[in-house]
Amino acid sequence: MSLPRADFLTNFEEDQGQGLRTVEDGYRLLDLGNGHPYNIVHQTVDRHVKRGLGSRIALRYLDGSRDESWSFDQLARRTDDWARFYRSRGIGKGERIFVFLPRVPEIYAAILGAIKIGAIVGPLFEGFYEDALRDRLADSGARLLVTSPELVSRVPLRELPDLATVHVIEDLFPSVPNHPYDPEPALSMEPDDGYIIHYTSGSTGKPKGILHAHRAMIQLAITGRWVLDLRPRDVYWCTAHPGWVTGSQYGIFAPWINGTPCLINGGRFDAATWYRYIDTAGVTVWYATPTAFRMLMAAGTQTRSAHSLASLRHLLSVGEPLNPEVISWGLQTFGVRIHDTWWMTETGAQLIVNLPHREIRPGSMGLPLPGIDVEILDADNRPVPTGQSGQLAVKAPWPSLMKTVWNNPEKFLAYFTQVPGLGKFYLSGDTARKDADGYVYFLGRGDDVIVSAGEKVSPFEVESTLVSHPAVAEAGVIGKPDGVRGNIVKAFVVLREGFPAGEELARDIQLYVKTRLSAHAWPRELEIVAALPKTRASGKIMRRVLKAWETGSPIGDATTLDNPERVTLALSPA
Ligand code: WTA
């Protein structure tokens, strides 16, 4: 496949002449020193207003017939209103404020206002329910929650003693003040002070609170400039909700630090609507997931041909493997290449990327950012020879690397290893290989974490919610390969005595998880079986065997297992 490079002179190429060469040089893009507060919100919002660029559009919100724009000036005013409100509620530096709202302009101001006063903000995905909310709000010791009348009913308030204030906003679309602007200065922080916490799923235990520090601004500035290739005249669209790390780091900070207007889409995915948004807003740079691209692909050429899409100049992808078929579809459909990027909640920003001036090797995630060293390690944490597979590891630190895992310093330390002769490395948990030129190829997860539609799902969390259903005795959860979503969550359950297996019960259990845990993590397929495969010695449920059941691959040695045979009693309706 011929993949011609971008036909524009990229920011990266321009910067080479200016001496900006590595991630660390990102600090030169920022207002640091000279009395400017060290706070990511100063860089994201106030800097533009102070330079007289406040009348530029910061965001344009489209949902159905609603079409609203905020300038940087208006964003600054709303942000400051929130900052004053939080201060009036006695929230201080380092305390946790959570924001649980749908994707409306107000969520951005509520998040930025919290960070501005030195608090740590926890944005929550609007699809979360009771179980997911309890874990996150309790573990973080959240003091204040901002939410909506519709979402507040999902929050188990009585089980959250630390939560002193629940602020329900009745009007999700307040009018934006235009009174003379009296800026509320951002609190000046230390580079290592926390600003945002994102909970992420592992294969065991509860979700981990990944805390990021203000120093991340350096890497967000440089990757916004080099990888997204953002300029002030672009219109940028990141399709993720700010409850996910992509929706915060690349839906708020990276674009706005670079002064670029953002399209904010309300509502759910719909191919025709999404194409229309691109034309209406004149989107030039677009960051989405392979699943979103595959859903557009499935919607067909007729839906596409009703739209111009001529504004698009630069496309990027994140979160799951970008298959070569999607790259060729992208080339045909939009006339440009889709640039893969790899990073994780823990890494805080992109690390392996396809810069727009470089050759793309389909199937590869690209090359490490300049200034970032990547190694592939064997089981003893020694580098493997070129071309061989192993664990993807990154030399630590880099500016956006997480500061810690909240309440769990042991988990934080377990992410790192000393590689003899090379220093300290961050262990990603992903399996990958490198070719002779350093291009990195993703091979899979090294653990049981499921990546579905670009979001990580912990089998443990889904199993915990499943077994709280009155009819479920035991549950085992795996990822099942899926042509559109990469993987879907598949559950195998064993019923308690007295509950007859049937399609209806299967559907009921699915719905239970959907409305208890999260709209993204529920099992799209659920199978009621007579028994689950377990190790005879420890009684541990063997997800490996469940995977073999599903994919038809051999189970391997079954002599140490109980119930290696699959006996299906009922399957959820398709
Ligand atoms: C996966 C999302 C293949 C990977 C920013 C990683 C990818 C996990 C890619 C992190 C990619 C992310 N190709 N797989 N380009 N990008 N992943 O924490 O398994 O939600 O470890 O961060 O997604 O997911 P997380």
Architecture blueprint of SSEs:
Elements lengths: L10 H8 L21 H11 L6 E7 L2 E6 H17 L7 E5 L4 H12 L3 E5 L5 H11 L3 E4 L17 E4 L25 E7 L7 E6 L2 H11 L9 E3 L6 H13 L4 E4 L5 H11 L3 E4 L1 H16 L8 E5 L5 H11 L3 E5 L9 E2 L13 E2 L5 E4 L12 E6 L8 E2 L3 H5 L2 E4 L3 E12 L5 E6 L4 E3 L2 E3 L1 H8 L5 E11 L3 E10 L7 H14 L8 E5 L4 E2 L7 H9 L9 E2 L5 E4 L3
Parallel strand pairs: 1-10, 3-4, 3-5, 5-6, 9-10, 9-11, 11-12, 12-13, 25-26
Antiparallel strand pairs: 1-2, 7-8, 8-18, 13-14, 14-15, 16-17, 17-20, 19-20, 20-21, 22-23, 24-25, 26-29, 27-28
Helix pairs in contact: 2-3, 2-7, 3-4, 6-7, 9-10
Short recap of the structure:
This protein is an alpha/beta fold and 574 residues long. Helix content is 27%, strand content 25%.
Describe the structure.
This protein is α/β, with parallel strands linked by helices. The chain folds into two domains: 11-431, Rossmann fold (3-Layer(aba) Sandwich); 448-571, ANL, C-terminal domain (GMP Synthetase, Chain A, domain 3, 2-Layer Sandwich). The chain is built from 14 helices and 29 strands. It has a nine-stranded mixed sheet, sandwiched between helices. Strands 16, 17, 19, 20 and 21 form a five-stranded antiparallel sheet that branches. The radius of gyration is 24 Å and the shape is globular. The protein starts with 10 loop residues before the first helix and ends with a strand. 49% of the residues are buried. The site of 5'-O-[(S)-ethoxy(hydroxy)phosphoryl]adenosine has 21 residues, from helix 7, strand 13, strand 20 and strand 21.
Strand residue percentage: 15-25%
Give the integer mean of the pLDDT values: 95
For this structure, what is the CATH class of the largest domain?
Alpha Beta
CATH homologous superfamily title of the largest domain? ANL, N-terminal domain
